[in-house]
Amino acid sequence: MNFPYLVRFQPVLLSLFRFMTGLLLLQYGIAKLFKFPVLPYFANIPPLIYAAGTLELVLGALLMIGLFTRLAAFILSGEMAFAYFMGHMFKGETPVFLPLLNGGTAAILFCFACLYLAAAGGGSVSADAAMGKD
């Protein structure tokens, strides 16, 4: 089934998708770095998770405003792939391949959402578009 009337909304919906992806990543960065909201699994984080939180905070904010969208999204895509393999799939002695069992569903989804944004750009409502870079 084709919905040709929705095609005209594609650039704006891409911008909304970029903004929401950035906002969700930003919340993880805030939770990891500033302990808000208080979550038990972010209570005493190791330095690697602190670095991941910094990337999520800074690059998530860049995604929200659409500045350097392709670069920020590409870096975040790699970070999420790394997070899945190191933090979810191989966190125990034996690898757990099923994302439903290892808690890595969000990391996989963020990885591919950011990979799409790296290819598609920020959309029509972004700082990149306002500066004529996209």
Fold and architecture overview:
By secondary structure, this protein is mostly helical. It is built from 6 helices and no strands. It has helices at 10-34, 47-65, 69-89, 99-102, 105-120, 127-131. Helix 3 (69-89) runs antiparallel to helix 5 (105-120). The longest helix has 25 residues, at 10-34.
Topology diagram in text:
Elements: H1 10-34, H2 47-65, H3 69-89, H4 99-102, H5 105-120, H6 127-131
Helix pairs in contact: 1-2, 1-5, 2-3, 3-5
In short:
The chain is mainly alpha-helical and 134 residues long. It has helices at residues 10-34, 47-65, 69-89, 99-102, 105-120, 127-131.
Which geometry do the CA atoms define? globular
Find the count of extended strands (DSSP E, 2+ residues): 0
Low-confidence stretches: none
Order of helices and strands: HHHHHH
Largest sheet: none
State the share of residues found in helices, binned by percent: 55-70%
Helix-strand category? mainly alpha
Give the rounded overall mean pLDDT.
Answer: 94
Intertermini distance? 30 Å
Oligomer: single chain
How large is the count of helical segments? 6
Kindly provide the radius of gyration, computed on alpha-carbon positions and rounded to a whole number of angstroms.
Answer: 16 Å
